[in-house]
Design goal:
There is one protein chain. This protein has a seven-stranded mixed β-sheet with strand order 7-6-15-16-17-14-18, with helices on both faces. The termini are close together. It folds into three domains: 170 residues, FAD/NAD(P)-binding domain, CATH 3.50.50; 78 residues, no CATH class; 104 residues, Polyamine Oxidase, Chain A, domain 2 (Alpha-Beta Complex), CATH 3.90.660. 33% of the residues lie in helices and 26% in strands. β11 and β12 form a beta hairpin. It has 13 helices and 19 strands. The protein is α/β, with parallel strands linked by helices.
Length: 430
């Protein structure tokens, strides 16, 4: 069977590999010159760095299995991770239970309460229990107003902006359940990283698809999916080339997918239209010296124009990047935000005073390079009862399948979820 895959990110390539293993004739179309999607990379000297920060959890079984199959397991490193929280003008360690007990912005009772409820969330596996209540309501009830005002409220508003009050507790459960599960006992956490970067995973995955007879076409944008008698007939590229197919998997975000297939039945199309997204905006700074002590710094001051600072070289050795230090400054904003329209140098200038609040010694002279990565449809907004809004992978058009981040709920976005999604949709299509 001829199966086309729209999108050469991790989900599309995983689906393609599974399908060629089953003997199908597979073609992958990727509009960008290179594969990777949200795992695409940029050159830092002789090294490749992900445009959006990435790491793995010990529970990422699907991703670990793929890495093993591709012969990369010897390059998989499990490295210590330090988490911090910027609040009240200082950086607080926020990795272990001991760090929580030392977190002075909360009183002792609130610290204990947060610790007990975090343990409860880690151990509870029934996410549906949390679907009919907002994160705000649950957190206020179970952890108290002070902890909400100091920790959870700023983080939710940083992630979801004006939609923070609508977010389902099931989404936050998924986020915390995965993260807290990576921490063992009373110690810190260890996260996974592929030596040389996750670009190696994408390269090996693409090559494996080709080696098994699949075709990968980069720099090829699909503009329309052709339908005949309510069944997929093929794909039409931007330059008008027609690719006849028996089935097509689209890994595009829902708004993009809607533009590819005007023949979608109204009910399914309206379901797709209900999902709202925030854009991911990531500034990478290549700097001369270390910025701080921690790997992952959540910012609890909502006067800041970003939500987190991720210091890659407090996780991976600077030696991997020729002795340079790498800083990601992360944000989630509406695609219409003025921040998304800023030129890279303007974004650097805009962020600089706030970075100096975290580290007063930081100066623009430290910056040797900078890069900006944007993803317009990165983070779906997840309200209560979101499971009712999830579109089926098998669309009402015969042979047409959709696989995107709206369908990983209640889990949050990540590489493991992308691999799982690819395997699920390949099982349906093939």
């Amino acid at each position: 069977m001829r199966v086309g895959v729209v999108g050469g990110g991790l989900t599309g390539l995983t689906a393609a590999l599974d399908l060629v293993r089953r003997g199908h004739q597979v073609t992958v179309w990727e509009k960008s010159p290179a594969l990777g999607g949200q795992v695409r990379t940029v050159s830092i000297g002789d090294a490749q760095l992900e445009g959006f920060y990435h790491h793995m959890f010990a529970s990422d079984k699907a991703l670990i299995g793929l890495i093993t199959e591709l012969g990369l397991s010897s390059s998989l490193q499990w490295l210590p991770s330090l988490v911090g929280y910027y609040y009240g003008g200082r950086v607080h360690d926020f990795t272990t239970p001991v760090d929580l007990m030392r977190f002075s912005p909360l009183g002792l009772f609130d610290r204990v309460r947060v610790g007990m409820m975090s343990l409860y969330l880690r151990r509870r596996n029934d996410w549906r229990y949390f679907e009919t209540i907002t994160a705000e309501e649950w957190l206020l009830k179970k952890m108290g107003r002070r902890s909400y005002e100091v920790i959870w409220g700023p983080l939710l508003r940083g992630k979801f902006g004006d939609s923070a009050e609508r977010i389902s507790m099931a989404w936050l459960w998924g986020r915390l359940h995965m993260r807290l599960g990576s921490r063992r006992g009373g110690g810190g956490e260890r996260l996974g990283y592929l030596k040389g970067g996750f670009g190696r995973l994408i390269e090996a995955l693409g090559q494996k698809v080709r080696d098994k007879g699949g075709s990968i076409m980069t720099g090829t944008s699909i503009k329309r999916i052709a339908v005949q008698d309510r069944h997929v007939a093929g794909a039409i590229s931007g330059n008008g080339e027609v690719f006849p197919q028996d089935a097509i998997i689209a890994t595009a975000p829902s708004p993009t997918f809607l533009g590819l297939i005007p023949e979608l039945p109204r009910e399914y199309g309206e379901l797709l239209q209900q999902t709202q997204y925030l854009a991911a905006l990531c500034l990478i700074l290549v700097i001369k010296r270390p910025f701080g002590r921690v790997y992952w710094l959540n910012v609890g001051d909502r006067s800041f124009p970003f939500v987190a600072v991720i210091e890659q070289t407090n996780f991976v050795s600077p030696a991997e990047y020729g002795g340079k230090y790498i800083l990601y400054v992360s944000n989630y904003v509406p695609a219409s935000s003025p921040l998304c329209a800023m030129k890279p140098d303007g974004l650097v200038s805009h962020y600089l005073p706030f970075l100096q609040k975290i580290n007063p010694r930081f100066d623009s002279d430290w910056v040797e390079q900078y890069h900006v990565f944007k993803e317009e449809y990165a983070q779906p907004i997840v309200p209560m009862n979101y499971s009712r809004l999830i579109p089926d992978m098998a669309t009402p058009i015969g042979g047409l399948y959709l696989a995107n981040t709206t369908q990983i709920y209640p889990e949050d976005r990540g590489m493991n979820q992308a691999v799982q999604l690819g395997l699920r949709v390949a099982g349906l299509a093939g």
